[in-house]
Design goal:
- The protein has helices at about 5-20, 30-40, 65-75, 100-105, 155-160, and strands at about 45-50, 55-60, 80, 85-90, 115-120, 125-130, 135-140, 150-155, 170-175.
- With about 190 residues, the protein is of the alpha/beta class.
- It has one domain.
- The strands form three sheets. The chain has a four-stranded mixed sheet. It has a three-stranded mixed sheet with strand order 5-6-9, with helices on one face.
- The longest helix has 19 residues, at about 5-20.
Length: about 190
């Protein structure tokens, strides 16, 4: 046997021993879902998020009434994971007039948002584009998806997973620096 193959066997053996020493623990899916909501809204200075692990209750305490109303309509009130129900509580629950206004109020001042644009040129409908900043979003999720327990994604993907489905009326996307959805329309 050559010295190269002996060293390779030693390295492989060390890798197996190091892997065996580590304890693997997995986060339940409701914790991963909670982390996604925290990723979307946790950086907003108007929102304080609290978690009660005993009752599986996630509470978003929002300072601005319009923002609270918008978030309450964008997030489901609860999410079922097998025999566990995650309860999502937001301060206010009155309805806002349009999807565009909901998103505009919910993400106002949030640093992860680039802009929101409304397209009324579609016959018999309108479309809202929620455009997030061009950056990688990371959150803690120790569920075998990553050996370090960290997930990397885009904010648009998290929004699709966490927020209610508005069908064809709302599109989540990531900004292309220097471009708007339509160069002919004015951004708000």
């Amino acid at each position: 046997m050559s010295d190269g193959s002996i060293k390779r066997k030693e390295v492989l053996q060390q890798g197996k021993e190091n892997h065996m020493d580590k304890t693997v623990s997995l986060a339940p899916p409701w914790i991963v879902y909670k982390q996604k909501i925290t990723l979307l809204f946790g950086k907003d200075p108007d929102i304080n998020i609290t978690w009660d692990a005993k009752s599986y209750r996630l509470t978003l305490n929002v300072k601005d009434r319009a923002k609270a109303e918008a978030i309450a309509q964008l997030l489901p009130p609860d999410k079922q994971f097998g025999n566990v129900t995650l309860i999502i509580n937001v301060s206010y629950k009155e309805k806002s007039p349009s999807e565009y206004e909901l998103f505009k109020n919910a993400f106002a001042g949030n640093p992860i948002l680039s802009f929101i644009e409304k397209d009324d040129d579609v016959p018999f409908a309108s479309r809202t584009y929620v455009v997030f900043k061009k950056e990688i979003a990371q959150y803690y999720a120790d569920d075998l998806g990553d050996p370090h327990g960290v997930r990397s994604t885009l904010y648009e993907n998290v929004a699709r997973d966490v927020l209610l489905d508005f069908g064809e009326g709302v599109s989540f996307t990531t900004e292309i620096v220097g471009k708007t959805i339509s160069e002919n329309r004015i951004r708000d």
